[in-house]
Amino acid sequence: MSTATSHFTPPARYTVDPSLAHRRATAVVTVRGADGAPLADADVVVEQTNHEFLFGNIGFELVAHANRLAAGEPTDQYDETFAERWFDLFNQVTLPFYWGTFEPVEGAPRTQELLTAARWFAERDVVVKGHPLVWHTVQPRWLLGKPLEEVERLQRERIRRDTADFAGVVDLWDAINEVVIMPVFTAEENGITPLARAKGRVETIRMAFEEARAVNPGATLLLNDFDMSTAYECLIEAVLEAGITIDRLGLQSHQHQGYWGREKTLRILDRFSRYNIPIHMTETTLLSGEPMPKHIVDLNDWQVASWPSTPEGEQRQADEIEEWYRTLLSHPQVEAITYWGLGDRGMWLGAPGGLLREDATPKPSYDRLHALVKGEWWTPPTTLRTDAAGRVDVTGFRGEYRVSAAGSCAGFTLATDAGDAEVTLTTAR
Fold it and tell me: Would you say the pTM of this structure is higher than 0.85?
């Protein structure tokens, strides 16, 4: 997934396509039997098994569940239902690597716990992302008071350790998070803000990317931020001019104060597409209750005793979810969307931003998104007839497919750059 980018030439304005033709591909698939001979003049069933596009969500709530399953311990019905609905919709997960909770005691990281969860997702064909390797928030208290040189050494070691320990399971990382505000952050004392202030934003980013790439050269590394102002654009340009490779741009979109709308979303995408770096919408929240007041600057400052989901809000959320996803998929630079929380239980700020209610029942937004991802944007099982050379023409949404006949099957990838495919059927398990 790596994209080498040390400088940029602004491309022509990207053209959005609501028909999503750019999300589809066509290939000639040659089907062979177990003996290697073409399966001529035969009926075969072709069905999609996964999307190329990354429809993501966080998996924070399922880390303990995955570990209980691995240990053979009992799990409760809520977790079972939650997990079932998670896997029925998403194919990419973001797991929590906040340094302060990942390594609350110096030298005792929660590596095995997170690795068990990461493998559990990966075994179910889910792309796993770690979030984040460097951030100034949720920092370990034991880092306070250490000299800057020691903080930098420990941060570099942390990046290398975790990137190496999870390589092959977690190869997608938010390498560094929210650097625009990092050197001037004042909400809480931490060890990373003084380091970023001393090194500067660009060199702090270089540290994160170079240390991660040194131990996992194949990793896909994101620069991620919530600041959609020109400050983020200036930072990106400075990073590229410094010769630092950014694999993907992460754009956050916590819309607690109201839905951005299609026009604003497309304006933002056009601005950040000019670097010709694929875009991941890394953190999306849309509410099914009352929006947060506009005068709140730091979303963390909004603390309320109750923030309920409402019937009217749930319908509004469903409509916004549909337009949001349709808009993002229509833009060719977007290759991933991560929704920030599946259920209202444990939602950031206690907001009614989940697609499931507190009891794990689906809101209209879940059903609406499911109808898109696994309905309108999913190639259904189709019976096709091979020709005399065992060939069939397959057209569908880019992703993973399976072809089967007479109890045997084989998989293939449908992608714009994959070309035609040859598959040999094996006995289905």
Answer: yes
